[in-house]
C-alpha cells in the first residue's frame, strides 16, 4: 500500500530570498536578530591582506600632482573632462577617489580609518580587485591584483602573460581594464546580525558610485558587466581557491566592471559593448600561478548566521548570458560650460565626505539645491544606457527604486510627504497612485523643474513620523529632509530572478553615494540609515506591507553637528589629505 508523501515542498531560491527579507524586517515590537552585544574581542580587521602576494605601492599623490582633479560640477557637464592616459599616476588617482583611506579619526586612545567609499557602521565588507592586460605605459604585469587601501597598493595575486590575457579583453576597447568587488559578510554580521546581508549590498552600491565617479574625474568610461555568473567572478578573483582561504573569513563575488579611457574607432564602428567575459578563458587563466593567502580577520571563528548563508546561496547568480549594450558615439571634449575657478574640486568633495552623526534641527536648504540633488539621482532610464547622465551610464538596467521623501526644511517647499518617481513612465505613476493612500494629492511643487517627476502627497509636519519609522533616530527628523528608497520588489525579482535582490540594494547604495557628495557640495552633510521599521514605513505611504513594493534603505540630509572631541589625522603620512 502506497503512503502519501507529506514532506514539505522545498522552497525555491526566490521564495528563500523573500523569506530572508521578511524575517530580517525591523518592527516596533521586534527587531531583526543580532548578537545583542558588542563582542569587541572578536571585531573583524577592516583590512584584508593576502600574505605572500607581492605588494606594489601606488604613488601617494597630493592634490597638485597630475592628474589634477576637475571641479565637482564638471562631473555633471557632458564632455568637459578630458580623458587621461592610463598611467601609474592616473591608476593611483582612480583608486584614491574610489576605495582609499581619506582620514583617520582618533578619540580616547582608539583610532579608526575613513574611506572614499561609505560603509554601514564603518565596517567595510567590500573588497576591490583589478584585472589588467598589457599596457606599455603602466609598470604593472598583466593579471589580477587586490587593492590594499591601508597601504594604497596593489597585491599581485595572479600573474599572467600578455598572450594569456588577450582573449579576456576581446570585444572591449583597446585600453580597457576590469575592476571587481566582493563582500565579506562577517564584517557586517559581527555587529548587525541577520540584517547584515542587506548592508553588505548597500555598500556594494556605494562602491559602484565611488568607482564610477573616480573614473569620471579622469574622463574615463565605465560599465557593469552584468551578464557574468557569480561562478565566473569567483574563479577570476580567486575566491573559490579554498587553500588560499584556510581559517579565514569567506568572500563572496559581487560584480565586475569594464573601465576604459576612451572609445576607439573600432568600438564606434561596432557600436556595442559586451556585458560578459569569456568563462572558458577565465577557467584557463585560473590555472596559472597564484600568490598569497588571505589573512584571518577575527580572533575566533565567525558566529554562524545560517539565514545569511541561505540568502547568499539563494541569490547566487548562476546564469551566464552573452548580452551587449549599445554605445553612444564619443565626441571631442568641448571644454564649454566649465565651472568657475573658485568652486571645489571633485577630489575635495570626495576627501571631505563624512557620514553625519547628528543634525542641528534648524538648517534649511534652498529649493533650487533640493531640486538639483533630486535631479542627479534621476537615471533617465528612457535613454540608451551610454547616453544617461553620470553615474547612471554604468548600470545596464532600468531604474527600480523610487524615493518616498519626508521634507522638513526646504525653503519655498511645503513640509510633508513627497514622492520622486525615478521612472518617468505613465504606467508606473498610475500603478503607484492606485497603490498608495487615496487621500494623497499628487501635485507638483511650485518652481519644480518640468523634467523632475516630484509629487507632493500630503502637506504637514513629517518630522515625528520620519523619526519614528527610522528606529526613533532623531537624525531623520532634525534634517532638512529624509527619505526611504522604495523598490519595485516583486516585479524585479520575478522578472530577473532572485539574484536581482542584490541588484536592488546596489541601486539604493548608488543613489546614496550621489546624495552623499551632493550634500557635501551644498555645504551640509548626510548619512545613510539602515535601521528603519520596514512595514510601518510602508503603511505611512500606503504600499503593501508584503512584497510588491519594499523600502530598502533610508537617507537623511541636513546641517551637521560635528563632534569636536574627535581628532582628524591624514590618511597617509606622506600624503596631504
Can you put this structure into words, describing what you see?
- The protein has 577 residues and is α+β, with helices and mostly antiparallel strands.
- The protein has two domains: 86-326, 3-Layer(aba) Sandwich (NADH Oxidase); 355-558, NADH Oxidase.
- It is 27% helix and 20% strand.
- It is built from 16 helices and 23 strands.
- It has helices spanning 13-23, 88-99, 162-165, 185-192, 196-217, 230-237, 265-270, 279-285, 306-314, 346-352, 367-375, 426-435, 463-469, 489-496, 500-521, 534-541, and strands spanning 50-51, 55-57, 101-107, 110-115, 126-132, 143-148, 153-159, 177-183, 221-224, 252-260, 272-274, 289-290, 293-294, 324-326, 365-366, 401-407, 410-411, 416-420, 454-459, 481-488, 525-529, 549-558, 567-569.
- The strands form six sheets. Strands 2, 5, 6, 7, 8, 9, 10 and 12 form an eight-stranded antiparallel beta sheet that branches. Strands 19-18-16-20-22-21 form a six-stranded antiparallel beta sheet, with helices on both faces.
- The longest helix is centred in the middle third of the chain and has 22 residues, at 196-217.
- The protein is globular, with a radius of gyration of 23 Å.
- The N and C termini lie far apart (79 Å).
Amino acid at each position: 500500500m502506497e503512503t502519501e508523501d507529506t514532506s514539505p515542498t522545498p522552497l525555491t531560491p526566490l521564495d528563500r530570498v523573500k523569506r530572508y527579507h521578511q524575517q530580517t524586517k525591523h518592527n516596533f515590537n521586534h527587531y531583526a536578530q543580532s548578537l545583542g552585544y558588542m563582542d569587541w574581542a572578536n571585531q573583524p580587521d577592516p583590512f584584508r591582506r593576502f600574505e605572500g602576494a607581492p605588494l606594489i605601492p601606488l604613488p601617494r599623490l597630493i592634490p597638485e600632482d597630475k592628474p589634477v582633479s576637475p571641479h565637482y560640477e564638471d562631473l555633471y557637464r557632458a564632455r568637459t573632462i578630458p580623458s587621461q592616459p592610463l598611467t601609474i599616476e592616473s591608476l593611483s588617482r582612480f583608486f584614491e577617489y574610489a576605495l582609499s583611506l581619506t582620514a583617520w579619526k582618533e578619540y580616547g586612545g582608539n583610532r579608526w580609518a575613513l574611506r572614499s567609499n561609505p560603509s554601514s557602521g564603518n565596517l567595510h565588507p567590500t573588497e576591490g580587485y583589478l584585472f589588467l592586460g598589457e599596457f606599455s605605459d603602466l609598470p604593472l604585469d598583466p593579471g589580477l591584483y587586490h587593492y590594499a587601501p591601508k597601504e594604497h597598493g596593489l597585491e599581485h595575486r595572479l600573474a599572467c602573460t600578455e598572450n594569456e590575457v588577450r582573449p579576456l579583453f576581446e570585444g572591449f576597447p583597446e585600453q580597457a581594464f576590469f575592476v571587481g568587488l566582493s563582500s565579506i559578510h562577517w564584517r557586517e554580521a559581527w555587529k548587525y546580525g541577520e540584517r547584515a546581508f542587506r548592508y553588505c549590498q548597500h555598500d556594494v552600491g556605494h562602491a559602484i558610485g565611488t568607482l564610477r565617479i573616480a573614473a569620471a574625474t579622469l574622463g574615463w568610461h565605465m560599465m557593469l558587466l552584468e551578464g557574468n555568473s557569480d561562478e565566473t567572478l569567483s574563479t577570476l578573483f580567486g575566491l573559490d581557491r579554498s587553500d588560499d582561504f584556510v581559517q579565514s573569513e569567506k568572500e563572496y563575488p559581487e560584480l565586475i566592471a569594464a573601465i576604459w579611457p576612451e572609445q576607439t574607432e573600432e568600438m564606434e564602428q561596432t557600436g556595442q559593448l559586451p556585458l560578459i567575459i569569456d568563462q572558458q578563458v577565465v577557467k584557463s587563466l585560473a590555472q596559472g600561478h597564484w600568490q598569497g593567502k588571505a589573512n584571518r580577520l577575527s580572533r575566533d571563528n565567525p558566529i554562524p548566521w545560517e539565514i545569511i548563508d541561505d540568502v547568499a546561496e539563494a541569490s547566487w547568480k548562476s546564469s551566464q548570458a552573452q548580452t551587449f549594450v549599445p554605445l553612444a558615439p564619443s565626441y571631442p571634449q568641448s571644454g564649454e560650460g566649465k565651472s568657475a575657478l573658485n568652486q571645489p574640486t571633485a577630489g575635495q568633495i570626495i576627501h571631505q565626505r563624512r557620514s553625519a552623526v547628528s543634525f542641528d534641527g534648524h538648517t534649511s536648504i534652498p529649493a533650487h539645491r533640493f531640486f538639483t540633488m533630486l535631479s542627479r539621482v534621476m537615471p533617465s532610464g528612457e535613454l540608451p544606457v551610454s547616453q544617461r547622465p553620470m553615474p547612471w551610464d554604468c548600470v545596464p538596467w532600468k531604474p527600480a527604486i523610487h524615493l518616498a521623501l519626508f521634507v522638513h526644511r526646504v525653503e519655498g517647499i511645503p513640509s510633508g510627504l513627497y514622492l520622486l518617481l525615478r521612472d518617468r513612465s505613465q504606467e508606473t505613476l498610475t500603478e503607484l497612485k492606485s497603490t498608495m493612500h487615496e487621500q494623497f494629492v499628487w501635485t507638483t511643487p511650485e518652481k519644480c523643474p518640468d523634467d523632475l517627476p516630484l509629487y507632493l502627497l500630503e502637506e504637514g509636519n513629517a518630522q515625528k513620523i520620519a523619526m519614528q519609522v527610522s528606529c526613533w533616530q532623531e537624525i531623520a527628523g532634525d534634517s532638512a529632509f529624509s527619505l526611504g528608497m522604495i523598490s519595485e520588489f516583486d516585479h524585479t525579482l520575478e522578472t530577473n530572478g532572485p539574484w536581482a535582490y542584490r541588484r536592488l540594494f546596489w541601486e539604493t547604495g548608488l543613489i546614496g553615494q550621489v546624495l552623499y557628495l551632493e550634500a557635501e557640495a551644498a555645504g551640509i552633510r548626510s548619512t545613510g540609515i539602515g535601521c528603519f521599521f520596514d512595514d510601518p514605513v510602508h503603511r505611512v505611504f500606503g504600499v503593501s506591507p508584503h512584497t510588491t513594493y519594499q523600502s530598502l534603505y533610508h537617507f537623511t540630509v541636513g546641517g551637521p553637528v560635528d563632534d569636536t572631541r574627535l581628532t582628524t589625522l591624514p590618511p597617509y603620512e606622506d600624503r596631504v589629505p
